[in-house]
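Re-running TMD11 protein to confirm reproducibility after the cluster update. Everything else is unchanged from the original entry.
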Amino acid sequence: LALYFHSGEREEKCIIEDVPSDTLVIGNYKVQRWDIQKQDFLESAPGLGMFVTVTTPSAEVLLSKLYGPQGTFSFTSYLSGEHIICLQSNSTRFVAFAGSKLRIHLDIRVGEHFLDESVVQAKDKVNEVNVRLEHLIEQIHHISKEQNYEREREEKFRKTSEETNSNILWWAVVQTLILISIGIWQIKSLRDFFISKKLV
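Result of re-run:
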């Protein structure tokens, strides 16, 4: 997931990331500030920091830390589900561009273990193959976890659908019984009315 969004000073922006359990999540971000003279976003925003908060599906705070204008944060999920990742700039009251518009670039990678090319190149060919194989095995484990998580979600969705269909069926039966009961009651009331008026 790679995106950018605009934010104001101390304005909190959150995204929701659906993550399987026991999965590494790495986030890279960069903050740019709006320059009024140049009418453009500058490459860096010195003096500005980003407060990153990660909340689990059970509303526990997994990560809460202040970083610089550009940085990397990471966490490992222990629950599967929707994790809320929030970014908020720290106060810039004493900085010249206080209150200006910010652009935040955010790149989030789920379950990806990066292959260090410098380590690979420093080793001989046999070790290079070993390192690459280990990396591929990690990626396979991640894909397997993702598939298991998707199966769990599909099963939960199917159960919910079946329960909803069952409830709809019972509601239809109840409605039919109510309508039949009202019809019988109306016929009986009309018959009693006609008998009392000696019309039948």
